[in-house]
Amino acid sequence: MSIDTSPVIEKPKKFTKKSEQSLLNSSGESAEDGQDAPTQTHAKKRKRGSEHAQQDIKSQKLKHPLSTKGSNDSSLCNGSQDLGSRDRSPFHVQTASFHLPISPVGESDILSGVCVEHLSPMVLTFQSEFEAVVLSYSNIRLGEVPRGESGGALVVNESSAWYLWVTADFLLFKPRQGDFIDGQVNLQDRGHLGLVCYNLFNASIEKKRLHSEWTWREQQGSHDGSKGRWEDIDGNKVEGVIRFRVKDVESTDDKEKGFLSLEGTLLGDQEEHELLKREAAQWTQPRK
Fold first, then answer.
1. Taking CA atoms, which of 59, 106, 150, 214 is between 20 and 30 Å from 26?
2. 51-60: b (≥16 Cβ within 10 Å) or e
C-alpha cells in the first residue's frame, strides 16, 4: 500500500506594501504561544535570519529610489514581462496541509516531533511546493483532514511510522517580476551593483539597468578598472538602501542549499520596455 504525500495548498493571502510592515512585525510573535513553542526551540538559528530581516526593514531609509524618468502605465509591456505594481508585496501567508510520517521517537510529543523533523527544516529554504522561500510557520493543527481528502492517522503495513495530516500557516517570500523591493548596497563593480534584501536575499542590477546619470569612478591604483564606486548625478557615492524592480528570479529547490537570488532594474517603465525590446531583437537575429 502506497501513501500519497502530496501537500494540499490553499490559495495564498496577498498583502500590499501598507500591510507588509505589520505582517513582518507579527510573524515572530506567534511563537510565544504554547502551541508554537517548538518552532523557537528547534529552529532558533534559522529564526534569527528572519528576525534580522524584520529589523533590517524597520531601519531602512531609501537613498536612491527607482527612477520615474520615462515612467508610464505598465501596459506598455504587452505581456513580454510584468512591469508590476508599486503596491504589490512579495510576502504572502499561505495555508498548507502535509500528510507526514510520524516516527516513533516523536510519539511522546507529536507537535514537537513534527516541527523538528518536517517543518523547521523548511525555514529559510526555497520550497518548490510553494514556489517561494519559507520565512516562518505558525498556527499548527494536527489531524485536520483537508477538504476532498480522506483518512486521519494511518499506519502502513508493518512500518514503524504512521501518517498524520499536519496543517500550518506559512509566511512566504515569493517575489515576482515587477515587484518593488528594497535592497542594501553591499558590492560595487563596473558591470553591476550588488544588494542584500531584508538581510537574507542577494540581488544584482547590471550596468545597463542602472540610472543613466550614474557614473563609474575608478579607484586610484586599480590597473584593470575593476575597483571603484558608482556615483550619482551629484557625485555622491551610491550606497545605503535602494528600491528596485524585480526583473527576474532565480531559484533552486536543492534540499541542502535551496534559495533564490534576484535580478533587478532601476529603469522607468518606458526605458525598461525599450531595453527589453532591444534585447529580444538581439536574440532573434541570426548568427553570422
1. 106
2. eebbebbeeb
Q: Which three cell numbers stand for residue 223?
A: 590597473
Q: Is 70 left (phi over 0), alpha (psi -120 to 50) or beta?
A: left
Report in angstroms the alpha-carbon separations of 79 from 14, 263, 280, 284: 22, 19, 13, 18
pLDDT digits (tens, 9 = 90+) for 188-224: 999 999 999 999 999 999 999 999 999 999 888 777 7
* CB burial string 263-273: b at 16+ within 10 A, e below: bbbbbbbbbbb
Closest to 120 (Cα-Cα) out of 52, 56, 49, 174: 49
DSSP 104-166: GGGGGGHHHHHIIIIIGGGBTSEETTTTEEEEEEEEEEES-PPTT---SSEE-TT-S-EEEEE
Q: Tell me the chain's radius of gyration from C-alpha atoms.
A: 23
The cell for 126 is 526555497
In sequence order, which residues have a C-beta less than 8 Å from that of residue 112 and are 6 or more positions away?
Answer: 38, 41, 42, 106
Looking at residues 135-145, what average pLDDT do you find?
Answer: 89
3-class secondary structure per residue, 26-90: HCCHHHHCHHHHHHHHHCHHHHHHHHHHHHHHHHCCEEECCCCCCCCCHHHCCCCCCCCCCCEEE
Residue 11's nearest CA partner among 201, 147, 189, 210 is: 147
In angstroms, the CA 42 to CA 115 distance is 7
CB 177 within 8 A of CB 82: yes
